[in-house]
């Protein structure tokens, strides 16, 4: 389990600044700094400014650092740490209802959160986790939902087809298109020292082995070495040691063993028919909540439509799209026939007609 070293430099700086402001404006209410969230130094702003001052404004390195100082705004390079809420176990129970096939993953994070809650500040930390399983079972959606319940920044980095490490570790500013990678960008723009970063489809990288696209992960997934990670687009160390890492994959056999060994690996299966009912209800509830027109539909799906959807064998990640489409069909059907009951629309089995998934068949031959 990762821990973190407190750095109160920013807190002391803000105290002095607030004291000065309060003396100039006595009516201003002083900040309660004892309740200030933990902050840690992630970017060395002084080094970044030094590089700006010693490089021409037209140089990539100058522009990269100026852009990142703009991202960091008034943080002085110190970012806050997301904490584990006291209601975390109730929230994990709710998460399990939405993703019933992720029971082992939820159990893993229960253990990690229980340890985090034992510390004074209950900082969100977790060892790297690799979620393996067939496509479409909800791996990415689960991670996004997890980031919300701990209120941290979520970053999805798709590795499918990636052939070089610059997406993760940046490209040297000596190149005309050289810029920092997605990892340090997530820190600077998300303003969280411990974002949840998902390396999606980690088994689908390609390219020349001389330019290993996963090369930066050998350093980033280790606590000690990630404290001083040098992105090629910035050329100064960044503290990446508080990042919470998740990888997703369909086939872990395609991933280099030294990378796999840095993760805890959990295999997630497709939902069973019984679990799919919970998944469906969760997705439908989310549609009603997230769309402006959602409240005009019935609160639950009928057994008939649930049965038809389960029998279709559609992957969970495609269900929302097809349910939204079914909602549209229900509105058209009801408007044509004036069959709205209780002022709400209800999806019927005939409204659920999934579109063909995949590439259309190409017929060859002479006419």
UniProtKB/TrEMBL annotation:
SMART domains in the record: AAA
Domain AAA+ ATPase per the UniProt entry, residue ranges: 125-272
GO process annotations (BP): chaperone-mediated protein complex assembly; mitochondrion organization; protein quality control for misfolded or incompletely synthesized proteins
InterPro entries in alphabetical order: AAA+_ATPase, ATPase_AAA_core, Lon_Prtase, P-loop_NTPase
Molecular function GO labels: ATP binding; ATP hydrolysis activity; ATP-dependent peptidase activity; serine-type endopeptidase activity; single-stranded DNA binding
PANTHER family according to UniProt: LON PROTEASE (PTHR43718), LON PROTEASE HOMOLOG, MITOCHONDRIAL (PTHR43718:SF2)
Protein name: ATPase family protein associated with various cellular activities (AAA)
């Amino acid at each position: 389990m990762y821990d973190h070293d407190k750095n109160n430099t920013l807190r002391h700086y803000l105290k002095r600044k607030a004291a000065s402001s309060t003396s100039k404006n006595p009516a201003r209410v002083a900040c309660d700094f004892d309740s200030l969230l933990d902050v840690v130094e992630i970017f060395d702003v002084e080094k970044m400014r030094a590089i700006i001052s010693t490089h021409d404004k037209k140089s990539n390195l100058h522009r990269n650092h100026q852009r990142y100082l703009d991202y960091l705004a008034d943080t002085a390079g110190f970012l806050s740490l997301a904490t584990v809420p006291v209601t975390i176990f109730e929230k994990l129970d709710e998460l399990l209802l939405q993703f019933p096939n992720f029971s082992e993953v939820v159990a893993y994070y229960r253990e990690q959160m229980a340890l985090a809650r034992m510390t004074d500040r209950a900082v969100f930390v977790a060892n790297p986790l690799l979620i393996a399983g067939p496509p479409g079972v909800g791996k990415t959606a689960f991670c996004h939902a997890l980031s919300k319940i701990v209120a941290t920044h979520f970053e999805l980095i798709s590795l499918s087809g990636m052939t070089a490490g610059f997406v993760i570790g940046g490209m040297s500013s000596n190149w005309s298109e050289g810029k920092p990678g997605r990892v340090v960008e997530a820190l600077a723009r998300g303003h969280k020292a411990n974002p949840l970063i998902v390396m999606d489809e980690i088994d689908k990288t390609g390219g020349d082995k001389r330019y290993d696209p996963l090369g930066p992960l050998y350093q980033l997934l280790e606590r000690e070495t990630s404290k001083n990670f040098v992105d090629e687009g910035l050329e100064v160390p960044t503290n990446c040691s508080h990042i919470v890492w998740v990888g997703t994959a369909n086939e872990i056999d395609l991933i280099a063993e030294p990378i796999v060994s840095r993760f805890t690996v959990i295999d997630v299966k497709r939902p069973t028919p019984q679990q799919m009912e919970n998944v469906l209800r969760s997705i439908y509830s989310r549609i009603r909540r997230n769309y402006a027109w959602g409240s005009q539909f019935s609160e639950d799906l009928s057994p008939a439509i649930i049965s038809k959807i389960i029998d279709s064998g559609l992957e969970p990640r495609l269900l929302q799209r097809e349910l939204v489409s079914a909602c549209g069909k229900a509105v058209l059907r009801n408007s044509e026939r004036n069959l709205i009951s209780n002022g709400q629309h209800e999806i019927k089995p005939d409204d659920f007609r999934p579109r063909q998934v995949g590439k259309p068949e190409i017929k060859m031959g002479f006419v």
